[in-house]
Amino acid sequence: MAIKYGRPIELREVSRREGTAVPHTLDLTVRPRRNRKAEWARRMVRENVLTTDDLIWPLFLIDGNNKREQVASMPGVERLSVDQAVREAERAMKLTIPCIALFPYTEPSLRDEEGSEATNPNNLVCQAVRAIKKEFPEIGVLCDVALDPFTSHGHDGLISDGKILNDETVAVLVRQALVQAEAGCDIIAPSDMMDGRVAAIREGLDRSGLLDVQIMAYAAKYASAFYGPFRDAIGSAKTLTGDKRTYQMDSANTDEALREVELDIAEGADMVMVKPGMPYLDVVRRVKDTFAMPTFAYQVSGEYAMIAAAANNGWLDGERAMMESLLAFKRAGADGVLSYFAPKAAEKLRSQG
Ligand SMILES: NCc1[nH]cc(CCC(=O)O)c1CC(=O)O
Ligand SMILES: [Mg+2]
């Protein structure tokens, strides 16, 4: 008997035997609502679940001591001095969030055309990695590789005559990745979208004996308006000249995303990422189905800001919107999500038992 979506086709068009329907009821054999009639029944047929293991929590760093500074465009998100970041790492651990990601706000005086601070083994990111891994070696630490927090022009790479240089930038990114890995970073995450950077970083790590350091490639990263609040948080919003469309992807494309992901896997990526998240769930699904790799999505700053702002205005239930948005990533096939909601979502998940 031919079976399609759980019901024998032969039974489909058959209506009920004469006279079985109670008066004033529709003559329906199939009533999908039966499986939704109570919480226990909904739990029984639920296809996807979100757990704390699915969360990666991005933190913003700032120089100083005992300092926490609100990010205006991301209500509830703060820039943290290293000691405070260590406290948040502890909070992440207690919430069983497996991994945190670190992003620095670099003092303007330390920014230059070449982003030299990126390769300083004692920069803010490296200090934070050392401090966190010293106190909490059991939590995963991910570091972003790109020059934008360190360049005076806010671009992810070196510039000459208004052009972002690919190969010259890759050489600097390798050095940036190495100082981070040597500080104790567990996952190197290149977000720059230069061609060939994953292979170059893998080779650099291996040559230095850092064989176990993982690479999570921002493989399909789009030129997006949704990064606005992040650039505010790391202080590059005001200085960024032009846009990033010569290196980040065109939001009209998905075949191209598959080619980008394929290259990064071939170059040695252990995990791949799609970014932004919610507007690109179709890409997440295609990537997961095509490559069956550990696949992550970044629910970026603008996505966070939209939900947080609407919630603060009383326009939607912030907690429910948060959980629904995170579950959507699981439904699309993601193995995990980088999200500024991570601690709140983890608290919610743990309170549910
Ligand atoms: N290359 C840096 C980088 N790494 C992560 C984000 C955005 C994250 C977010 O918006 O939350 C960006 C911004 C950008 O590419 O301009
Ligand atoms: Mg690429």
From TrEMBL:
Show the Gene3D superfamilies listed in the entry: Aldolase class I
Alphabetized Pfam families for the sequence: ALAD
EC annotation? 4.2.1.24
Native species = Bradyrhizobium nanningense
The EC class name is lyase
Record's InterPro entries?
ALAD (IPR001731), ALAD_AS (IPR030656), Aldolase_TIM (IPR013785)
**Protein name in UniProt:** Delta-aminolevulinic acid dehydratase
Catalytic center residues: K221 (schiff-base intermediate with substrate), K275 (schiff-base intermediate with substrate)
**Lineage of this protein's species?**
Bacteria, Pseudomonadati, Pseudomonadota, Alphaproteobacteria, Hyphomicrobiales
